[in-house]
Amino acid sequence: MMTHRLALLGSAACLLMATDLAAAPLSDAQQAWLDAAITAYEPRMTEVAQTIWANPELGYLETGTVALLSGELEANGFTVETGIAGLPTGFVASKGTGDGPVIAILAEMDALPGFSQDAVPYQQAVEGITAGHACGHHLFGAGSVAAAIAVAQWLEDEGIPGQVRLYGTPAEEGGSGKVYMAREGVFDDVDVALHWHPASSNSASQGWSLSNVSAKIRFYGQSAHAALAPEQGRSALDGLEATTHMVNMLREHVPQDTRIHYVISNGGSAPNVVPDFAELYLYVRHQDPRIVGEVFDRVEQAAMGGAMGTGTRVEIERMSGVYSVLPNDVLGQVMDSNLRAQPAISWTEDETAFATELAETLRAPGDFASVGTVDAYEFGDVGFYSTDVGDVSWIVPTVGLGTATYVQGTPAHSWQAVAAGGMSIGHKGTALAARTLAATAIELFQSPEVLEAAKAEFDAARGDAFSYEALIGDRLPPLDYRAPAAQ
Questions:
Q1: Which top CATH class is 211-322?
Q2: How far is CA 214 from the centre of its chain?
Q3: Could you tell me the residue ranges of all domains in the chain?
Q4: 303-316: string of b/e by CB count within 10 Å (b at 16+)?
Q5: pLDDT one-digit tens code per residue, 334-344
Q6: Which of 62, 49, 76 has the alpha carbon at shortest distance from 420?
Q7: Are 115 and 58 in contact (CB under 8 A)?
Q8: CATH number of 2-207+326-462
Q9: pTM attached to this predicted model
């Protein structure tokens, strides 16, 4: 994959010259129309986001979210197909004609377990709720829907040939929903895919992510009284702990920038009972999916050794596997220019007070003034995170952005992200994302030369020999991966 990256960096410069000449940025009238369209829908967008935030649903369980988002799209003339790629909560909504470009906008939906948090600047759980939108996917979904509705209306008003699609993609947090959709070919006829993500700054920089494989490693032993008859037991937890010990020794002997992390999702129920079942939930990450595969093979060998040494039995189930994001510089520069053309975010005194109090809980608070600025555009850096957007990006040219929906310095997957995402700070960042996505799509619909340049860069980056094969193989979607471990 590193060779692909070098080819991409070498080819982008010559492609951009053509892009600068071919781009058709929005006119003043088009920008004014777009701003009015998003402003008019913004109260409903906020209501949709808040409804999802108040009713967080885990991966592959987003039934209420799907009903809400797809209902919004149907009410605005979209044709909605549900149950995509065998995913009960996957859907595709389409509007437009079939004789022009197809532009997809991605919408993630799932929450994270263990992040119950009210919309207050201090840690406070919400009674009766155990999950939370610590990665802002409630904003992601609502903002993407707002953009899709605006673009569809523009296509209809202007009589422009083409189709806009909103892809409802479930279970990004470890369930790899987009991978199953990609494996089934639902992106194959798309010309460009757009996405965004909640963040603590505004940026359209394009870079690589990390490929990953995750797995649940289950050990089976023999229960016995831990004091009266320990010799009759075979501890599944011993098998698990032997494995984690070997995995931790492995860290010294893997390629640089490899990440391995895990939790013990089931370690037994009582100290005086030899556990007959234990479960390890583990991730391996690296930019290069080949290295991920090699390191995970060694983890599997460690698990088999742990089972052999403790007289237990082991089963290994791959839960997910995603490619690294393949960045596109041509599309990135178009996205960046459209982000800079939108009205800047401005906080009220109340929002600044909220941010000031919340910032006291952060290890590295940022500069609040940056909420109204856009970061310098950069291309080709590596981000140490994983996303199933990666698989989409190796099938169709893909571009994304982040907007300031969190207080500056807030890390994703934190209670502080949940708190800001449940109030107006999050909503303002979402409106900026919706405007930018819509503006980028409108520009691309009227810029065929840009689409061609983006595709040329994409083809050069992948290489002639590339053929997409999902890292999850032919397994069925793990629709119960958020369910408690079963013995």
A1: alpha beta
A2: 15
A3: 2-207+326-462, 211-322
A4: beebbeebebebee
A5: 999 999 999 99
A6: 49
A7: no
A8: 3.40.630.10
A9: 0.88
